[in-house]
Design a protein that fits this description.
165 residues; Protein Transport Mog1p, Chain A; 44% strand; 3-stranded antiparallel beta sheet
Length: 165
Amino acid sequence: MVVHLVAALVAGALAFTAPDGWRQSPSGSTMRVAEFVLPRAAGDVEDGLLVVYYFGGTGGSVEDNIKRWIGQVQQPDGRPSTAVAKREARTVNGLALTLVDVSGTYVAELAPGSARRNNRPNFRLRAGVVQTPKGPYFVKLTGPEKTIARWDGAFAQFVGSFKYQ
């Protein structure tokens, strides 16, 4: 059953509001505290996927995660993704939030530790680390560039709704 969420969700100690139009999907792991499908834009062949992760207060530093996420995207012209990635740090409701935004060919592992990798050109990755008193939560959004662009405002609304409870 697909549920359209407009009310606040609480994932451990992090509360957030899912924007209209996002569909909650069942979590594929206990480390995934929330998953949302962002319906595809016209012309795209797949939806976007946003996952909120919590690893019990661990999960690596902000820098390690930003570096790993940027490394999951390759540029078609061969230059490093660090040259084109956009990074932002801000405070949302008293919580430190660091975000990264990068487009290109998505080449992340198909599953953690897998030798098989994605090969999805014209993809976009938006991700972030929100630091709470119980440790960091991680947010990762991936999908075709047009689809992710369609949901830019909703993503900003989503991360702007983070609250510690």
